[in-house]
């Protein structure tokens, strides 16, 4: 066996996965790498015939991963071949070798079997209604959809569905050109132009979009998204909780409850109605579960970091987050002080009214 060739194939597969995750979700390629001098990071073409125009317009440069339909060895040099679809409900993408990616519509996902890497996408208003119903159910009952927290599943365009727009997202990160040569960030996103437009032109038009239109503007009216966001300020926090649950599932930790969604870990906290944390997706997320014999364990997810906490510290942190720092005797003062020290030690800054020691 040629181990060099195997290693090259493995490297190419990992690179493809990272770019597809970025392209589907609108998040930077992980791990970070230098931005291309010209062109977007990931460009998916529905028709290989658009490649010359996209290249001439500067949409594809030396550092761009360009995906074109076809078979390995039959596509232009410097591009990656794919078979199938990344844009249709029930579609399956293949690199023509050993990697497959399914695409499911949101409303159908509870009834589909996940065999491997899967992107769940909101394709229409029925999908959107199902997404909102799941988010509302999680808030009231603490029940998150099982398919959405599965480790091999990704939700497409999460920031758009939350009513926001990640500043890291944009034409410099990802582009899609449909069969007619119309260009958008996402297959469901608002059209920014055509493959003949420059990256600067597309970027300027993207800057004019609001309320998630870049990710869902073709299928959901931006004003409707704005109303949804106003009526459901917990949506971004819900999506952050989904990501946290998925990250723990990858590590084999299941059966978790998320603070603020259906319950609280601290006795008496829910009765106060304190819910400042539900409006801020950037705050750490406290998760907990029973371990039998009246035992409990807790975790906190802060950005890309995950910690196990003892239950007393988790309760103190939960109260700090929910009340904005005004714990009002819900937990012992020494637990609050100890938790503040823990946050400082891990350089986790909280915008709270209670003074939290700065990192040394």
Number of separate strands: 14
Please give the share of residues in helix: 25-40%
Unreliable residue stretches:
1-6, 354-360
N-to-C series of helices and strands: HEHEEEEEHEHEEEHHHHEHEEEHH
From the N-terminal CA to the C-terminal CA, the straight-line distance is: 53 Å
Radius of gyration (CA) equals 22 Å
Main-sheet strand order equals 7-6-5-4-3-2-1-8-9-10
Please identify the structural class as seen in this structure: alpha/beta
Detailed description of the structure:
With 360 residues, the chain is an alpha/beta fold. 33% of the residues lie in helices and 17% in strands. It contains eleven helices and 14 strands. The strands form two sheets. The chain has a ten-stranded mixed β-sheet, sandwiched between helices. Strands 11-12-13-14 form a four-stranded antiparallel β-sheet. Strand 12 and strand 13 (295-302) form a beta hairpin. Helix 10 (311-323) packs across helix 11 (333-345). It is elongated, with a radius of gyration of 22 Å. The N and C termini lie far apart (53 Å).
Q: What is this entry, summarized?
A:
By secondary structure, this protein is α/β, with parallel strands linked by helices.
How does the SSE layout of this entry go?
Elements: H1 3-25, E1 42-45, H2 51-56, E2 65-69, E3 80-84, E4 92-94, E5 100-105, E6 118-121, H3 125-141, E7 153-155, H4 158-161, E8 174-177, E9 182-184, E10 193-194, H5 199-207, H6 213-216, H7 222-231, H8 235-250, E11 257-258, H9 269-272, E12 285-292, E13 295-302, E14 305-309, H10 311-323, H11 333-345
Helix pairs in contact: 10-11
């Amino acid at each position: 066996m040629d181990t060099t060739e195997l290693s090259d194939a493995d490297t190419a597969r990992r690179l493809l996965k990272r770019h597809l995750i970025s392209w589907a979700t609108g998040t930077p390629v992980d791990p970070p790498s230098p931005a291309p001098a010209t062109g977007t990071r990931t460009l998916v073409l529905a028709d290989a015939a658009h490649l010359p125009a996209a290249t001439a317009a500067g949409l594809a440069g030396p550092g761009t991963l360009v995906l074109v339909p076809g078979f390995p060895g039959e596509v232009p040099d410097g591009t990656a071949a794919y078979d199938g679809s990344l844009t249709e409900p029930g579609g399956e993408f293949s690199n023509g070798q050993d990697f497959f990616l399914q695409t499911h519509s949101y409303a159908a996902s509870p009834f589909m079997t996940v065999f491997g890497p899967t992107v769940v996408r909101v394709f229409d208003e029925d999908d959107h209604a199902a997404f909102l119903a799941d988010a509302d159910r999680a808030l009231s009952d603490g029940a998150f959809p099982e398919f959405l927290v599965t480790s091999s599943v990704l939700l497409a365009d999460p920031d758009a569905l939350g009513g926001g727009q990640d500043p890291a997202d944009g034409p410099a990160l990802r582009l899609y050109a449909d069969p007619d040569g119309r260009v958008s960030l996402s297959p469901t996103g608002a059209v920014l132009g055509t493959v003949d437009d420059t990256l600067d032109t597309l970027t300027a038009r993207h800057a004019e979009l609001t309320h998630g239109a870049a990710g869902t503007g073709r299928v959901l009216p931006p004003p409707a998204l704005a109303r949804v966001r106003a009526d459901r300020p917990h949506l971004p926090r819900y999506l952050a909780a989904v990501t946290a649950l998925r990250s723990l599932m990858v590590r084999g930790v299941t059966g978790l409850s998320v603070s603020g969604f259906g319950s609280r870990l601290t006795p008496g906290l829910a009765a106060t109605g304190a819910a400042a944390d539900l409006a801020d997706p950037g705050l750490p997320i406290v998760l907990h579960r029973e371990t039998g014999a009246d035992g409990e364990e807790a975790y906190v997810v802060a950005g890309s970091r995950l910690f196990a906490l003892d239950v007393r510290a988790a309760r103190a942190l939960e109260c700090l987050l929910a009340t904005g720092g005004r714990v009002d005797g819900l937990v012992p003062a020494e637990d609050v002080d100890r938790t503040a020290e823990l946050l400082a030690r891990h350089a986790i800054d909280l915008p709270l009214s209670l003074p939290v020691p700065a990192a040394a």
